[in-house]
Design brief:
Protein name (chains A, B): TetR/AcrR family transcriptional regulator
Strand content of chain A: under 5%
Oligomer: homodimer
CATH topology of the largest domain in chain A: Tetracycline Repressor, domain 2
CATH superfamily of the largest domain in chain A: Tetracycline Repressor, domain 2
Largest interface: A-B, 26 and 26 residues
Helix content of chain A: 55-70%
Keywords (chains A, B): DNA-binding, Transcription, Transcription regulation
Structural class of chain A: mainly alpha
Pfam families (chains A, B): TetR_C_11 (PF16859), TetR_N (PF00440)
GO molecular function (chains A, B): DNA-binding transcription factor activity; transcription cis-regulatory region binding
CATH class of the largest domain in chain A: Mainly Alpha
Number of strands of chain A: 0
Chain lengths: ~190, ~190
């Protein structure tokens, strides 16, 4: 896979990316997933198919980029004033979004058209950044918190593992259970 | 996706499956991954392409089945007489195999050609069964152990998450760290 050109905001490359992504969204919404093809997307975006092939390689790599863009969090996590409340709210929302049919489709797309792992890595970077915000706030309040990688292992990893490999347990109660495991159960706190 | 016919051992269906899987292995070993196509596999297996399309749908679904078959553990986990030693040995081997280029390719294949999630679920079932053997032995020895689902969350999920989404940490030391987290760190045991 050749490296993707960087998209300078406002440059031609960024405009092509925006119009191609928008064309994928529009076609999918109007005609469904099966209608997505490079020629159809190109026609809708007003570019040539070869522009898409040059930049993305194939349909799967394009859909992987679109999926990662959609998986990007739109806002910082809620600030409820307490690490347990913040992580619980974040984990419940993450699980609900990722376990939904749409979320699963994006995760799948992100993984499939991603031979070098860059897009999958970006998904993890998004989650890590959100968790770091929550942990950073807690540290500023003087709360003792685990480090970010430990929270990824004990909270994010089990949710993603069950979404991809092990159906069931994809509920608020499960998210709460994992937060307890990540922070230590309340009944064990002194 | 239509349901796959069951392969009765010794029946025609089982013979077709065995010869097609063997053809995939042989072609891949001789000519590499890029040489795999349904016509080439069919010719090598001595079946018609339509036999493959009827049974597997497409190349991706066939490769998913082949991958799951290769990910099936060949023997029960080592019995070292102690749950910590058993889990450590199992986790180190699991991580080494799954994080290898070959292991990653199989995980990827298993996920990609698996629209209904059955093959990904089978991968998790294999890991769960191995862990259950280790925990069952420990219970028979009177050791207190966590339940299987807790071990999947705290040991298997982080390894798979980092293999798929978050490069780095794929070492024996990381496997050991996760076993400690799953069982409680030794220094905390009374």
């Amino acid at each position: 896979m050749s490296p993707k050109p960087m998209a300078r905001p406002g440059g031609r490359s960024a405009r092509v990316q925006a119009s191609v992504h928008a064309a994928v969204h529009a076609l999918e919404a109007e005609q469904g997933r099966a209608a997505l093809s490079v020629p159809a997307i190109a026609a809708r975006a007003g570019v040539t198919p070869s522009t898409i092939y040059r930049r993305w390689g194939d349909l799967q790599e394009l859909l992987s980029d679109v999926a990662v863009e959609r998986l990007r969090p739109e806002e910082p996590p809620l600030d409820l004033g307490d690490v347990r409340a913040d992580l619980t709210a974040w984990a419940r929302q993450f699980l609900e979004e990722m376990a939904s049919p749409t979320g699963r489709a994006y995760i799948r797309d992100a993984l499939l058209g991603d031979p070098d792992g860059g897009n999958a890595g970006q998904c993890s970077t998004y989650a890590a950044a959100q968790i770091e915000v929550i942990l950073g706030r807690a540290r500023e309040r003087g709360e003792a918190v685990p480090d970010r990688e430990a929270v990824l292992d004990s909270l994010v990893a089990p949710m993603m593992y069950r979404i991809l490999f092990r159906p069931g347990r994809l509920t608020d109660a499960y998210a709460d259970h994992l937060v307890h495991a990540a922070l230590g159960r309340p009944e064990r706190l002194v």
